[in-house]
Every structure is written in structure tokens, then in C-alpha cells.
Design brief:
Layout: E1 2-6, E2 9-12, E3 17-24, E4 32-38, E5 45-50, E6 56-58, E7 66-71, E8 76-81, E9 90-100, E10 103-108, E11 112-117
Parallel strand pairs: 2-11
Antiparallel strand pairs: 1-3, 3-8, 4-5, 4-9, 5-6, 7-8, 9-10, 9-11
Length: 118
Amino acid sequence: VQLVESGGGLVQSGGSLRLSCAASGFTFSTYAMGWYRQAPGKQRELVATITSGRDTNYADSVKGRFTISRDNAKNTVYLQMNSLKPEDTAVYYCNAVRSTALGTQLYWGQGTQVIVSS
């Protein structure tokens, strides 16, 4: 199983970035996917999630600015980030989760750094 994030980098306040997370080794379409972030000295926090049925959920801090989407044909989940703020600076991680009668499968990627300069 692999989750590989990409698209991070340095951007000015007000700018945009699009993160991608390419998945392999599991049946992507049956998993809920999520983006989380961890800033220095802080706990990892939820950014956005999308279910296998494409229902989405966002942290209040990113609503209206970030959009999560998925392409099951490409086994990829995206996070479009607009109107970026310095407080969005963090390492961004994607995860995949599925709960069945056999238990819960949870996978994490290695993360991609996003730095927003003021």
C-alpha cells in the first residue's frame, strides 16, 4: 500500500496550490480519503475528507477556500487550496480509511510541506 503526496511548496499569502495524493495497493474507490495537516509544535488536524460516495467535510478554518476531490480512475485525491494564509503552513498528509465487518484499514502518506509566506 502506498499513498504519495505531491504539490506542496512555497507560496505567497493569497496564492493557491493543488495537492495530489496518488494511491496504490488497495481498492481506492471503496475508501474514504482525507487530508490532514500538522504545523510545527501542533497536533495533526483534519483539513477535509471525501467518502467513497463523494460526500465531503471540511474544517471550519478552510471552508470556502479549500476543495477536496477524487478521481477514482486515477486512484488520486486532490486538495485545491485557494486564498492561502500563513496559518495554513504545515505538512499535509493524506489518508485512506475503510471500515468493514473485518475491521478498519487505515493508511497514511509521508506528507508534503506547504509554506505560506506573508
